[in-house]
Amino acid sequence: MRLSILFLFISFVASAQMDPKIMEPIMEPIHQLFEGMKKGDSALVHGAFHPSAKLYTVYMDVKKNTPVLRGDVFKEFLKSIGTKHKDVWNEFIWAPKIEIDGNLAQVWAPYAFYAGKTFSHCGVDAFQLFRDASGKWKIFHLADTHQKEGCTIPPEVSDKMK
Q: To 5 degrees, how large is the angle CA 54–CA 58–CA 59?
């Protein structure tokens, strides 16, 4: 009996996380971020984030072959979005894994980044989101990995850039 109740609870939690009514509001600021990147609109990007947001990136230093954590680059990131650049910046995520506890959500998703139609890099985005008093979700922490090789990009993503 206890085991069946446990399985019922687990299936309820899993189905609740897949419910579009729950997922869409969480994904909204993430889509806003990518739309702002594509348009080169730093104000649109800024609006997806909580005022105290932090951004970090993890990558390998190819010269030293060591892992690097590059810390809090939010202001630098916003500046780069708003600075004119030749190519449209397109970032695509797929198969997001969403976890929620009350007003805290986490989204973990592989991504591919393109400058124009040219592949630049890939990795994983790890978003932490907060649901504020207005009921809106805002990104308060974003960490990503960054690599140029070993990327497995699904055809539905790479086909968009052809």
A: 150
Taking Cα atoms as reference points, which of 31, 58, 60, 59 lies closest to residue 47? Answer: 31
pLDDT tens-digit map of 132-151: 999 999 999 999 999 998 89
Q: pLDDT tens digits for 101-115?
A: 999 999 999 999 999
Boundaries of every domain in the chain? 23-161
pTM: 0.85
Q: What is the pLDDT of residues 31-65, one digit of tens each?
A: 999 999 999 999 999 999 999 999 999 999 988 88
- Neighbouring residues of 138: CB distance < 8 A, sequence distance ≥ 6: 29, 48, 49, 50, 53, 129, 130, 131, 132
C-alpha to C-alpha distance for 157 and 28, rounded to whole angstroms: 19
What CATH code would you report for 23-161? 3.10.450.50
Structure tokens at 134: 């207005």
